[in-house]
């Protein structure tokens, strides 16, 4: 694995831990209780922003086609696995 991907994964992990710590501090709960939810939120957001647009892009192009009558070429959905989704595998080795 390239060093850039490792650095991005570590920065993401540290950022997630910091956000989780402040949420746990704010709501007076244990760190581990909040870690699952913030990890899930990070995974969903990184999946949403690392793919080619998905359903949201299809919705916007369909609305635009309906308003203008111009049919746009749609790209097929391709899942691109980014650095964010490599993080759990990195720590399980």
Radius of gyration: 18 Å
Kindly, what is the distance between the CA atoms of the first and last residues, rounded to a whole number of angstroms?
13 Å
Strand fraction band?
under 5%
Secondary-structure element string? HHHH
Question: Helicity level, as a percent range?
Answer: 55-70%
Task: Please tally the helical runs, counting DSSP H or I stretches of 4 or more residues.
Answer: 4
E-strand count = 0
Largest sheet: none
What form results from the Cα inertia axes? elongated
Can you describe what's shown?
Helix content is 70%, strand content 0%. The chain contains four helices and no strands. It is elongated, with a radius of gyration of 18 Å. The model has no long low-confidence stretch (mean pLDDT 77). The protein is mostly helical and 93 residues long. The longest helix has 25 residues.
Q: Summary?
A:
By secondary structure, the chain is mainly α. It contains 4 helices and no strands.
Secondary structure blueprint with pairings:
Elements: H1 3-27, H2 31-50, H3 54-68, H4 87-91
Keywords:
93 residues; 4 helices; elongated
